[in-house]
Amino acid sequence: MKFFYSLHITTRYIIYACVFQLSALVTHFLFQQFFSEKMSLLYTCLVMLPLTALFIHFQIEPFLSLLRALNGTVSSYKDGDYSFGLYWPRNDELSELVAAHNDLGAVLREQRLNLAQRELLLDNMVQHTPVAMLLVCDNGPIVYGNVAACKLLNNGQKLEGYDFSSILKNANQALIDAVNRGADGLFHVQDDEAQEEDVYYLARRLFTLNGRSHELFLLRQLTNELRRQDVKTWKKVIRVISHELNNSLAPIASLANSGIELVRREQLERLPVILETIAERSHHLESFIQGYASFAKLPSPRLAPVSWSYLINVLQGQIHFDLVGDLPEKPVRIDSAQMQQAMLNLVKNAHEAGGEQNAVAVSVRQIQDSFRIDVMDRGTGMSEAVMMNALIPFYSTKRSGTGLGLALAREIIEAHDGRILLANRDGGGLVVSLILPV
């Protein structure tokens, strides 16, 4: 089809050339009747040249118009307007360029429409999320605030354009303190009307946008979630305590009835065994209750410098373990009694992990601005599911376990502004790492 169109164009231009040649000859012949040879050639050129220029102009104008249209649509594409297209009636090589250009515009329009729909969906999600989101530029003007942020900080009014510090002046003091701390964390807000306390979590992230520093603040209310978790935790506590009480009180009641019956029959020779068993179960129950009480009433740590050699020697006097490597010379600021309790629980767990008793080891290292204590064993380790729940209070895989050993250690370490990590060892076993600030 294109071949026949090109042949048609070529034939048309040949005819044009012939017509121009014939017109030039006729004009020259006519001028020869009135003028000399030279003058007739001159007049012929004066007549034919404007006609030729005018003809060329009419032939080239569509191409020039197409180029101008191309330039205009490309400029529109730069401005983000993809609604323009081109029309070229001829079926030549330029028609392929026009078709490709129109296809590009259609693709860009489709992408722009999809992008606009995604932006609209994202904006609706961000605006109506219960998490308050606030974007601040260079610690100054607020660039963005969603509905939750407007309700929390500005009585539902828009926040964009306001200075963050001026908005913060009217906020709750607990929020001001949380922002001034400069780190993520929980804070509590007292609701005087409802006479209850709301818990919020503040997260903040710094990033660069368009060459300027921005900070994103996320405020999430955790009160309802924490209440649900509290209910679940208390239910679990009640189940554990009920199970343990039943396991101890049922045998005690049975043995007491047996003792009464033996006294009635005056068969006193078995009575000491029964009383000894009752005393043993009572002592176990007392230890169980004391363990829960110590976890619930853990006081704030009283920090004081303690040498590592003193701490390790005290622990080795209570339970066996091997010390790996040298101890740091710099003392650590801890509550000695609480730290001994935490490490004693961990070493006991290591001995009960199922490995060799002489494979339990402890190492202490200083890594930059923190101390790292590793309690290691060669037991069976932990599965992924157990490791995810091992630090939760009252969680235990042992039939007689209370689930308080690791939980109590975690409470003590976090009260010292530290953290606890669990990991399986190469070759089998578990390593429990305590990270404490220097």
Plain-language structure description:
This protein is α+β, with helices and mostly antiparallel strands. The protein has four domains: 2-112, no CATH class; 129-221, Beta-Lactamase (2-Layer Sandwich), CATH 3.30.450.20; 226-296, Orthogonal Bundle (Helix Hairpins), CATH 1.10.287; 304-437, Histidine kinase-like ATPase, C-terminal domain (Heat Shock Protein 90), CATH 3.30.565.10. It is 55% helix and 18% strand. It has twelve helices and twelve strands. The strands form three sheets. Strands 2-1-5-4-3 form a five-stranded antiparallel sheet. It has a five-stranded mixed sheet with strand order 7-9-10-12-11, with helices on one face. A two-stranded antiparallel ribbon has the order 6-8. A hairpin with a 4-residue loop joins strand 3 (185-191) and strand 4 (196-209). Helix 7 (223-265) packs antiparallel against helix 8. It is elongated, with a radius of gyration of 44 Å. The mean pLDDT is 77. GO terms for molecular function: ATP binding; phosphorelay sensor kinase activity. It comes from Sapientia aquatica. The chain crosses the membrane at residues 13-31, 40-60. Its EC number is 2.7.13.3. InterPro entries: HATPase_C_sf (IPR036890), HATPase_dom (IPR003594), His_kinase_dom (IPR005467), HisK_dim/P_sf (IPR036097), Sig_transdc_His_kin-like_C (IPR004358).
